[in-house]
Structure formats: structure tokens, C-alpha cells
Write a structure and sequence with these properties.
about 550 residues; two-stranded parallel sheet; two-stranded antiparallel ribbon
Length: about 550
Amino acid sequence: MTEKTAEPENITSPPAPQVAEGSTMSHKQILVVFGSLMLGLLLASLDNTIVSTAIRTIIGDIGGQNGLARMPWVTTAYVLASTAATPIYGKLSDLFGRKPLYMIAIALFLTGSALSGLSQNLDQLIAFRALQGLGAGGIMGLTFAIVGDVVPPRERGKYQGLFGGVFMLAMVAGPLLGGIFTEHNAILGITGWRWVFYVNLPIGIIALFVISAVLHLPKRRMKATIDYIGATLVVAGVVGLLLAAQMGGQQYAWGSPVIIGLAIAGVLLLVAFVLWEIRTPEPILPMRLFRGAVFRVSNIMGFLIGMVMMGAMMYIPFYFQVVNFDSPTKAGLRMLPMMVGLLATSISSGRIISKTGRYRFFPIAGIATTTVGLGLMTTMDENTNFVLAGLFMFIVGLGLGATMQVLVLAVQNAVDMKDMGVATTSTTFFRSLGQTFGAAIMGAILTNQLTSHLKSNAGPGAALAPVREHGMEILQSQDAMGKLPAAVQHVLIHSFTQALSTVFLVGAALSLIAWVASWFLKEHKLRSMAPADVAKQAGSSDVEAPAMAH
């Protein structure tokens, strides 16, 4: 396919005038702002991985009766709140300013963290995790919107590539820290697992202080009507679909009236949301944005890559724990090859984009590389050595690093500056949806395939009946695995690697679909002026120009 560079398409009104080249912030000032943003992003990204390691210990301490049955809600409450809140933060930040909304998000996250650490029962923990999620949704989405405010798209790549490393650091550091905290009954007189939440407090306070002191964005005085109906519809619709995805195949069968009812209700509420957004003058998510090819294609790709990321990353540490009997800490460290690959292309692609102004090549090449890496991972079994597995992970990391941040950059560059916040948080929203549905779909595939392979490999004998019926539960407990005879362990591990191969195959297929979509991504000339600098050079910090992002 011939690669063409087009002029920026006008999704709404014409883009803001480019008064001068580059950002008026110095490189050092930008690095200070980026450092605090990366701290905030690390908090939100780290929380799920660190909690997943500690969850069994937490349930044993405060779970009470039926604690194991309600265990998924500790994660589900966080995911529901963060995903549903993300687009709302974006629109409100466009109306009232990025900085105050971002600080509110951090404050909510820290409050939820402190209360989660103080929880005395599981109901309290679930409620406080939802509060954490409300803050995390703002942190995840507004981080990239603030980057869009202070750094011109032409220069943004060399900075934004660093965020890819934050996500991978969370994948590695989460199990490591979670293992350290849960392996100690008490640290400084406080129960070990409570530090999973308390560790957020000093990091978050530093990020809050730095953002308050060094981030200076143009103020905007604006009278606007908040779309409460739209916000209610999108939250209710997303919650319905996510509940169906999270509980399907676990608490309830996929074909049960509860799951079908939630799915239908979610779809109907989102249809009502779209119809309402078309009519209302101040929509939470303007439907006109979907008329822009870059916005539309980037979000389709982001959704698919979110599914792939969850499928690839979620089960790799699990693979090492099952096959090698690794601890969660060691399994997390084995993810380092993927982190190295992701960092390499995330940083290098950003620098090349800043130098050349061209970005379309990277998602095309990146998703192709991810597809190849996942295809190679389908060959992994109990006999695969770590060098080979590490190479496959490195290839997947190379592909993801060249893709994720470029999609955000493309969207920010294509939309009007006044829509920067809602457009940026929409990319986070669709990727988060993809991750949630990816986790549900991949989990269902793994469970079904494992059951099928266990029946085939174990045969009809009564000796292996418990393994056939409770294979997944046994795999999730190293103690239970360790008590099995070697021959039974072999059957269980081999069946697991066969099932996981199918998961990676589905991930490769989804990645291939994303690669096809990547060819429809248009390349627009990158702007050389940051929105915040447009306002400054216009001579006022209280500008109300319609094309401003803030």
C-alpha cells in the first residue's frame, strides 16, 4: 500500500493557528511535569497487578464466609469505576481545565487507597476499591491529555514513548511488590497486605505536590451545561456490559438469564446514550468525532490491542508459575524481556517520529510484529526453555511498544484542540474496554480448552477424576499442585499449555485484525505548536478561543 501524508482533516472547526514552532516550556520543565505524570500513571497501572498477587492473603484475613466467591469483586469494582469514569473526566477537563480534574482524580485515588488499607471486611474493601477506580479513571485518561496540552505533536513522541515503559514496569513490579508485602505478616507493626494500598500514599502525594507546583496551563472561564443524562447512560451501559464480561463463565454461566439480561441492558443503554449524545448541545462524548477517520480507526485498533495485551500479558506469568512452579515474584521478573522490547521501540519510535514527523509506519509494523510474536508463543509448552520464551516475549514487546502511544498521538493530532481531553480519554476508554473484554474472553477460552484437553489426556479413569473436574482451581494453588503425584502433574501441566496455546492463537488472530485496520489509519501532518502555548502566545491566560484544548 502506498503511504501518503495528508493535511489534517477538519473533524469540527479548523485547528488553532500555529503561532510559533515548538513549546515555550523548556526541556527540563517538561521532564519535571512528565516525571510527576509518570508517577501518577504508575500508581493507576500498578494497582491491579499488585492487588492480584495479594488477593488470596487478603481474603484469608478479612474475607469471612463466602469470601472466595466474592473475591473477583475486589478487582471488578476497580475496573468498572475506572473504565466508566474515564470519558466523563475527558469532557469535564475540556470544559473546566485539565489540572484541577487531574488533582481531584489523584486525591480520590489516594483516599480510596488509604481507606482500602483500613478495611475491616470485604464489603468495605470492595467499596473503597471502587473509589480508587474513580480516581484511576481520571489519572489514566488525563495524563495523556495533559501531555497533549504542553508538548506539540511533532515533539511529543520522544517524551510519550516513556509511558510505555510505565505500563510494563507495573506488570513486573506489581507481582514483585505484592509478593514482598504478603510474605510478611507485619511491616512496621502493620499487617503486610495493607501495604499494598499504603505504598500508594507517599508516591501519590509527591505527584500531587509536583503537579500543583509546576504544571501551569491556561485557565478557562466557561459556562456550560454538564450532560448528566449522557453521563448516567454511558456509565450504566458500560457497567452492564462489563458486569456481563466479568461474571460470565465465573459466577454465572454465559447463557444464564443474569448474563444475557446484563448484556442486553448494557447494549440498549449504550444505544440510548448514542441517540442522546446526537441531540444534546454539550455531549459527554461528541458523536461528530467518529466522523474523523483517524479517531474512528485508532479506537478500533486500541480496543483490539487492549484485548491482545490482556490475553498476552495476563497469562505469561501464570504460565511460569504453573510450568516452573515459580513464585509470583519470580514469574513477574521473567517478564523483563517483554519490558525491554517494549521500552526499546517505545522510546526509539517516539524519537524517530519527532525527527521525521511521520508516524503511520509504526503501528503497521508494530502490530505485525506483535502478531508474529504471539504466533511463536503458540508453540510454548512445558518443555520450552526460558531463552526461547524470553525471545518470543521480547518480540511481542517490540510490537506493542511501537503501537500503543502512537495511537494516542494520532488522535490528539487529528482533533480540534477544544476536543483534546474527551478525544484522548476516549482512546484510554476503548483500550480499557478491550482489556476487560479480552480478559473475559481469554479466560473463557482457557477454561473451556483446559476442560477439553483434560478429558482427552486424563482418560476416563477414576484416579484422575478430581483433576478433570477441578483442574483450574488446582492450577491456581501451588500447594495443591505440589501435593499431586508427578504423573498427574504432567497431565495437568500439559493440558494447561495446550489450552494456553489456543489463547495465544486467538490473541494472534485479534492482532491480525488490528493489523488490517492499521492500513486504514491516515497520516496527518504533525502540529508544531502545543495548545497551552497557543494560548500563551495569544497574550492571555484566560482565552476562550474555541479551538483551544483547555
